[in-house]
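Q: Predict the assembly, please.
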Amino acid sequence: MRFIFVTVIKEMKRRFNDPGGLISAIMIPLAVGFLMATVMGGGGGQPSIKAQLLVTDLDDSFVSQGIISALGQDRITDMIMLQKVDHEAGQQRINEGDGSGHLIIPKGFGKAWLEREEVALQLTVNPSQSISPRLIREMLESLLDLGDYLHKVFGEELKIIARSLDGNELTGISTSVFSANIADKISGIADLVFPPAMTVEDITPQPETASVSFALLMFPGILVMAAFFAANGQSTNFWTEKEKGTLGRWVASPNAFFSFWIAQWFTAMLLTAVVAFPILLAGFLYLDIRFEKFFTALAWLALTGPILFSVLSLIQVLAPSKKAGGMISTLIMFPLLMVGGSFFPTETMPKFIATIAQYTPNGRLVEPMKGYFTGEYGASGMFIHVWGIMAVALVLVLLAGWISTRKALA
Amino acid sequence: MIEVRDLQKSYGDLIAVNRVSFSARPGTVFGLLGPNGAGKSTTISCISGLLKPTAGTIRVGGFDLAGDAVKAKSSLGIVPQELAIYEDLSARDNLAYWGAAYGLKGDGLKQRVDHVLNRIGLMDRAGDLPKQYSGGMKRRLNFGCGLVHEPAILLLDEPTVGVDPQSRERLFDLVREEKTKGTCVLYTTHYMEEAEKLCDELAIIDHGKIIAGGTLDELRAEFGGNDIIRLTGSFEASRVEPVIAGLNAGVLSLTPESLMITISEGARVLPAVLQAISATGADIRDTRLSEPNLESLFLKLTGKDLRA
Ligand SMILES: Nc1ncnc2c1ncn2[C@@H]1O[C@H](COP(=O)(O)OP(=O)(O)OP(=O)(O)O)[C@@H](O)[C@H]1O
Ligand SMILES: [Mg+2]
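A: Predicted assembly structure:
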């Protein structure tokens, strides 16, 4: 155990004594991130991805108008741009990929809602976008939750309104009672219910959501790229030590060979943290992310290092030589980085590539981190995504260790 | 101590080590002497646990290397023929790391590292990275890494190749120091001078087989007290051979350019030998008379020059 610790220190010293690898693992992702953010425009405050929601109101009741005006709330317009269209025009535009979604409020919706009958809003989303439609769906769901809540509070009054819509006139008395009731209830719960966007805030507790910028979508991919580079550097160490004869010294020593791999694994963890630190810092400052997320993000990134290290190590030990190992891992790494969202965020990719991204080790790691930054997940939500992958990675690195034992002993 | 029994290592059809047996005692230096490709490194690698023997048993410090690997290995220190150091780690860090690999720590480790740094002459460069060292300096560090933990058994595989004569003497001193402490040293080389200077016991290996073994004196006795005369110049074999037979001498080697014979009382008969050989029309340019050494022994045993 102590020797594993000593070995990790030794490995870190080696990396710092010959810092070329470390520096490029920091500088390349930073440069890519900076370049992409500059080209695509938009720093932290600039919301450059906005959902465009087309709305067709076939109902034209005060309920449907309420929905539309709720969606027109200030805070929501930061994220969703509303445009009223007629039915055909809306469907056609969505089919052509113009707009994030088309919301149809069917005829009779208002009345049905008031009477608590089964009724559905119809939403068609643009399949080539992934974040915006999600945003719209969540927004609508929260609106409907608000609707439920209104029912609970104003149940009686809403029934009266519903009846009035059927043509039954309200008598003078009932009108005044009705008004008084509403006024009472409103003054009691106004703090809770209004403005309606408060409910929206509940499901999007992190204000960053309101400004999902291109740079922010890029950021997790850039970080995982850095982790990838750090892990790749460390995974070639098996061959370096084999060629330099130090692996032989290790095999000749009384230390178990698996402890070599455990030490490498922890080194990958530390190294990733070292490489991620300056990038994370730069990103947090540039994107204006809440600083309390910093160390959680760093810890999470440190875990991604060993995961990527395990995958790359398996490639290395299966390769017939150092040269082949280096070539294969480079050949694999760049397409993976490309598909996995390190050069372009998955949101900007064609749908099928975005789907592939989910099955790449780095792509799987990019998404939870993105969710954490955009506020979709809390810290635990992000970490939950990593344990399963970590378990697989542990199996891979043990496999690499087992294969390398047979390789070290000719 | 090291006990090797019927060790065999094959690479496909090639038998690199062929039923080699020997044992080396604590407090002695055991030399394994042989030309390139004889199987010295292969033998050492098997004893270090780096190669799996095809057959045979190896016991190290009383433990079977195959059955009790961890215990056997913990008494070993190795200095491989090929450099095995971290070039991106200072000499001090290299030594400290390999010391820690065998459980040294704290002040004990630090003192030992300082001692070794002094002995290998790298104290003033201890903080530099070996990348910036000369070849000989790297060799010396490689040497130090093998014995920093004061192993009971030290395996040295041609540790002085490329090391200048002064530094070499210091490394020899270090080997002798270890030996005096009771360390069992296995030393491979193809330099006879080294073997003669350092080794208490020797085995001569060629083509994977041990062809002679014993103490230096025992091996010298193979010559029955004869001396060696080595001549260079130009010789005509058909005319020289009968003359030598008439002198009651034995031919060790005879080429158009050189002649090596064994003969008793070499110093006394040398003038007569030179005269007789000159009479064959040979042109003698250089003459050397010596006691039998490993070179001549090897020549006698294999008919090959060790330096070839
Ligand atoms: N990995 C290998 N694969 C095939 N043959 C090998 C391998 N390693 C060594 N050999 C062969 O085994 C034989 C013994 O080699 P070894 O390295 O033990 O010689 P050596 O006595 O140490 O020579 P040197 O003085 O040159 O170091 C040689 O014929 C060599 O070609
Ligand atoms: Mg050798």
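Residues 51-190 of chain A form a domain with the abc type-2 transporter like fold fold (CATH 3.40.1710). The pocket of adenosine-5'-triphosphate (ligand 1) is lined by residues B 11, 14, 16, 34, 36-42, 81, 190 (CB under 6 Å).
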